[in-house]
Specification:
With 508 residues, this protein is of the alpha+beta class. The chain is 53% helix and 15% strand. The chain is built from nine helices and 13 strands. Helix 6 packs parallel to helix 8. The chain starts with 11 loop residues before the first strand and ends with a helix.
Length: 508
Amino acid sequence: MDSKTPVTPNIYAPNLHLFAFHLWRGLTGEPESLAPNPKQLWERGDEILNSLGFTERLQIHGYPDDSREPPGPQINLCPHNSLKLRGTLPNSDLTITGKIYSHRLYDSYGLTVNLRHPEQENGEKTADVPISFWRNLSTEKLLFLPDFLKSSLGQTLLLTAFLPQSEQKKNADELQDFARHCLAQVMPSQKIKRPPLHKLGELFGSPCFEFGGQVLDAGLEGEAEVQPHILILLFREDLPSAKLVDAYRNFINLFYYRNKVLSAYQETRTLYRKTYKLYTDLEQNVKLFKQDINISRQEETGRRSGLTQAQLEDLKGVLKKLAALDLDYGRLLRNYKHSRNTISINTKNYQVTLAAILNTLQEQGYEVQPQELEFFREFGDRTSPYFQTRINDELNYFVEGSSLADKAIASIRGIVEIEQTQRDRSLQEQNQQLQDQIQAIGVGIGTGAIFASTVGLLFPDSRDEPNLEFANLHPFAIALLFSFAAALVAWGGTKLLIRVWWWTSRRL
């Protein structure tokens, strides 16, 4: 106990309940979708047993060997329902007893550890013990805190004890200091920062205190953290303790669903930071794309229209980059929505489990009223719905980023396709003009050749007709001259006919 901590009365039958949860598989359940080190929770359980001097170890389906686990959504993995323990407190002769439960809960593993100083020994009521019982149980390793367990889905630590006679008439507000002394036993201030008191009230008519258990959102500056979640329940009489014991299995589920919600919300804080960064990258790339287009259009003023080949290649590079960013952005949004759905599903399960606790106790003959569980209702009725509302607002904002990227990609593709079409059409026209030129030249040459072969028949030999103007020309020169003229006329006529045909076909 800290040197400045006032002396606190002894307590009767202190209990420590650890509810820790660890993801063991992803969405598909296939071997490749297993979470990293899925057996870690069982290994930590064995380390707790070893540190407390127990010789027992976990022997459950699938651990320590790789035996096959029984099928089903919720399975008790311990062949004998639980591992029963009995020993003495480290560095003390105080008796400790307890049980360890190992469950598979859908896609997760759950380790539940209950260690206590028994209420009776040899048929007689045990004596009150110092509040430091919990500190000695935690040891210097702080066995029951997140830094040691490192369970991926978080944990809840519940401390219970019977109040000493001098404190039993006090209400929850008056017992705050007493509860903080209990907290100090498992969270020594020199070891770790203690979470603040989040809520106080009553559970089953007994004072109950909730410390921590909140998500500390670092915004865009760093990773979000979940405070250690510690509940302290102080009994005035036996009945509340009996209710807790008889609904124990339902409380395992309740804390499981709560931690699933918190871990999913914590994941959305990481996704928010990554998505926001990618959103700004998309905006910046779209902005640069618009600037490049404006510059290109200004450069085109006063010269030919259309983009250069270099500009066209740059656009294709921007298109590839934006498409890759949009793919990553879509993946982040998908994970965002999956976390939102996880929160929604487990919030409903949390609320259903609260009703199941009530029904279980009523079926066992307890006269229990709904308001006796009011302490836990705030999380399902207010906290978790706030998470969902915030995520929905963020998704509505980020969806615009996907739309922005889609529009930019569509614009670039349109520009590239138009430019490519214009280039193809220009090339096609150039090829057509070349073909037309070749055709015209071919017609001209053919006509000239035909005319050259027949021109001798059109004009008599100049040597026989001395009065003709061509008398001084050689017959070969005459043939060459007239064949060239005929070829030129044929080439020009063919070009004119081709142009008239193209003009007519386009109008039609």
